[in-house]
Amino acid sequence: MTTSSATDKGTGWVAQPLSAAGWLGLAASPTFAFMAWIATNHAPPSALCSSGSSMLPTDGMSAMYLLMSLFHLSPWLKLAFGRS
Asked: Where along the chain do its domains lie?
């Protein structure tokens, strides 16, 4: 008789159920990315046509949300590479 588990046969990685904190950690990065997209699309035209030498057509809030999304990316990387 064999038991079924959530183990990957190749790596020996066992899938662990996520707690509420784990789900919040996974929700942070996409939420901030979505907020950056909203802030960029709803920026006033003066922010998009500023005379500064900016490479991206974003204002300060869009850049902040984008950076926060990158800083909160580690739970997704841990999930993708199978680390707990």
From this structure: 29-44+57-84
- Given pLDDT bands bounded at 50, 70 and 90, which one contains residue 61? confident
Among the listed residues 11, 25, 29, 19, the one whose alpha carbon sits nearest the alpha carbon of residue 66: 29
pLDDT tens readout for residues 75-84: 999 888 887 6
Q: Which two tokens stand for residue 2?
A: 């064999």
CB atoms within 10 A of CB 66: 19
Burial (CB count <10 Å: 0-12, 13-18, 19+), residue 68 = middle
Question: Is pLDDT above 50 for 4?
Answer: no
> Residue 75 CB: number of other CB atoms within 10 A?
19
Question: How many angstroms separate the Cα of 58 from the Cα of each of 33, 48, 50, 65?
Answer: 13, 6, 10, 11
CB atoms closer than 10 angstroms to residue 40: 19
